[in-house]
Amino acid sequence: MAFDTHSLFGYSLVDSVVSQAANILVFNVQAGHGTRFAINQQITIWPIGANPTLDNAMICRITGIVGDQITASYVVGNREGSNIRTVQAGDQVYNSITPKTFTDIETQISNPTKAFVTVGYSNADYIVDGIADDVQIQAAIDAATALGGGIVYLKEGTYNLTNNNPNPAFQQVYTGSLYACILLKDKVTLKGAGIGKTILNLASFVGGLPLGQGCNVIVNSAVGQSQQGVMDMSITMPAFSVSAGAYGRCLNFAGVNHLTLQNLYLYRGSWAVFGNTYSWDNVNKILTTDTRDIIVEKVIADTFKDSSMLFNLIRARVLHCTYLTSYDDALLVAQSGRDILIDGTSFDGDSTHVGSATAHIYVFNDNSLTTDKNALSDIRIINNSIRNLNTLIGESSGVVIRKAVKVKINDNLIEGNLGHGIYNVSEGNLQDIIIKGNTIRKNGGYGIKLPITVGGGGFINSIIQANSIYNNTTYGIYVETAAAAGTCDGLTISNNEIYDDQGAGATQANGLGLHIGVVTFANLVASMNNIHDTATPYDISVYGGATLTGGILYMDAGALKYRGGGGTTTIIAAA
């Protein structure tokens, strides 16, 4: 907070009163005395020849000074309980100590400036010895918390940790106890000297601890906390078995607001942020959650078994991060969420063919909160490199969507994954999905595969446009409705380039596959796609009683063709 300004011997007499009305007083002090006073200063005015008392004095606040002319406000707050009086020439003026002087000091003492507490092997507030250093780190966090929050700075060095702090506050999120080395508290940021300079090292898990996400390095100490951060350090976890045994996360947070994870190297562990208390209003389509405003920036996750996760939260940003050697989905956006951006991040898999993963980026509503597709929406996946996912079990695709709306997948490089480039897991409406400007190549499955094979799903107002799709397997783009679906109204597939230039080793035999079964599909447009060097540029079928309202206009072998609602093909313009 800002204290009032001060001046020395700020005393004078009122030389003349210019005006006094509407709680504003304008007056002149004696010649040359204007410099004795300052703006944002409390003054007391009382009659000459008397001492100031509650009956004869008025306190007011200086709001302007020009030469020897002073403007002061005496609204209720500035008077500090004193009475209004009519100021006269000859009255005394003094920048006296008033009750506000003391209340400002008391407020500052009870709400101090944020702390800066240091930890290190020498010349620090808390000295470590390389054995159970989490004890001193935790003491420093507790000290910062006692001062209202602030920064705990870990000086350069390796800090050896234990894993034995139970945290029952997380029982709503996890089954069984959650254990961690460090409990981060409200309004505290844990900051190091930089990646590779400050290292938090957990050498082994304590025997008997729960497996999986029960083992962590840093967690928040209680739900409902805010303004926390972990920055500028490396965190190392114990080696793990891909098929069995203990593993965990470097960072795990639940029920927090305004969390920043920045400039970190995480080895053998991931990060996760969960909503702790959340609900979905199915009538008004509103998600309410205690977790929002999350920034994960320049975080490297290297060799990890459990996914990074964003669950049941609002406003999250994953920016310029790196994922290396994942044995599970690298990033899981799940259950419910709003306004989530994944931008400029590199996902690079592993060629050892172990572990289990659906995708590098897996966006799905698993119906655990609600079956409403709108609960997971406004997801933007842009400018990322999504490559080489190759696990033993699972789809191992680049990006997978399952029951989400308003998803943009734009301007990404998606290549070399064992599964599909972009894939919809068969169920749920694909509504307001935009797939645009991506390069999708050399994936072991289809370039883009969007099947609706579970009842109740459909396509609504979605666009696949201006993508470069080549050298994938079987299909460049494949769209299917094979079950009694909901609404299918609005799908545009245009201006894509689809080809296979591998010659005799070609694997992408089909360009665009549209298999429309069972449903009535309105406003389906496939036009202006450049499909070449494939055995079957267009594989279009309408079956099972399906109808197309408006039909499909497309180019095939140099001819402009129209496939009508009844499945009849008409050549509009010959090659």
What does this structure look like?
With 575 residues, this protein is mainly β. Helix content is 5%, strand content 50%. It starts with 10 loop residues before the first strand and ends with a strand. The strands form four sheets. The protein has a 38-stranded mixed β-sheet that branches. A six-stranded antiparallel beta barrel has the order 1-2-5-4-3-6. The chain has a three-stranded antiparallel β-sheet with strand order 47-48-49, with no helix packed on it.
Helix content: under 10%
Radius of gyration: 33 Å
Class of secondary structure makeup:
mainly beta
Report the sheet-strand fraction: over 45%
Mass-distribution shape? elongated
Overall pLDDT confidence: 85
* Biggest beta-sheet profile: 38 strands, mixed
Unreliable spans are 168-176, 208-213
H/I helix tally:
3
Cα end-to-end separation: 77 Å
Count of β-strands: 49
In short:
The protein is mainly beta and 575 residues long. The radius of gyration is 33 Å and the shape is elongated.
Fold blueprint:
Layout: E1 11-21, E2 24-29, E3 42-46, E4 58-66, E5 69-73, H1 76-79, E6 92-94, H2 99-110, E7 115-120, E8 126-127, H3 134-146, E9 150-154, E10 157-161, E11 165-166, E12 179-184, E13 188-191, E14 198-202, E15 215-220, E16 225-236, E17 249-254, E18 256-267, E19 270-274, E20 278-281, E21 286-289, E22 292-304, E23 308-319, E24 322-326, E25 331-343, E26 346-348, E27 359-364, E28 376-382, E29 385-387, E30 397-402, E31 405-410, E32 413-415, E33 422-424, E34 430-436, E35 439-441, E36 448-452, E37 459-465, E38 468-470, E39 475-481, E40 488-494, E41 497-499, E42 510-517, E43 520-527, E44 530-532, E45 536-543, E46 547-549, E47 552-556, E48 559-563, E49 569-573
Parallel strand pairs: 7-8, 7-9, 9-13, 10-14, 12-15, 13-16, 14-16, 15-17, 16-18, 17-19, 18-22, 19-23, 22-23, 22-24, 23-25, 24-26, 25-27, 25-28, 26-29, 27-30, 28-31, 29-32, 30-33, 31-34, 32-35, 33-36, 34-37, 35-38, 36-39, 37-40, 38-41, 39-42, 40-43, 41-44, 42-45, 43-46
Antiparallel strand pairs: 1-2, 1-6, 2-5, 3-4, 3-6, 4-5, 11-12, 20-21, 47-48, 48-49
